[in-house]
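Tutorial, part two.
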Amino acid sequence: MEIIGYIASVFIGITLGLIGGGGSILTVPVLVYLFGVDEVVATSYSLFIVGLTSVIGSVSYFRNGLVNIKTAIIFGIPSIVAVFLTRAYIVPAIPKEVFMIGGFMFTKNILMMLLFAILMIAASYTMIKKDKKKSIDKEEEQQFNYPLILIEGSIIGILTGLVGAGGGFLIIPALVILSKLPMKEAVGTSLVIIAAKSLIGFFGENEATIINWNLLTIVSIFAVIGILIGTILSKKIDGSKLKPAFGWFILVMGIYIIFKQITKLNT
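Running the prediction step on this input gives:
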């Protein structure tokens, strides 16, 4: 299972480098189901892996001038604050046994994985659906819808803090729509935002977690190798054509996680 886990870690990086988002949403399931990491701890590990991988992935975008620093700061601040507060205060405040319905106990681990599965299904929808308008890769006069950016950034930050996913599938459309960025520039800017908020969320935790640095380092290395491969492949393969297939895979994974967590309620 560990060997499969390392292969999956490379796949996470490849997907992130190839289609610009969505790959990080596989990190928690890989850690939980292939490496046997506790669900809550896995969300913490995921922040580090996703953050480090995004840092490496953003380098080529920086070199090609495809990172809008002003947008990254404006959109990133509410997101970073939200993820920091979520990991530092909200996650530790959630009790291990949250509530009971009809004799079924909903624990912290089960609820977080169910939330994660719902997020996966939402991500799959954004990947599977066909865009009615083709993305225009040209400069437009940049405008900032500050109220919507504040709300969107905060929501994405809270979700990232709770489930450990980077949220690229939410950030990229938001940057295109709310900040009028060309698609390639939105991808590069998204990676910078994901890197900052994920790593700050990881190191800002209040919950005392014993970190398996050996496992975390190895998985991170494989994910970084993956994103380097994905970045190279993105120059030869149109990642947008692969999105629907990957979306269906994410959908199946989300349904599987829901099924697994429901079965836990019966044990």
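Residues 2-265 form one domain. In part three we will examine how such features are distributed along the chain.
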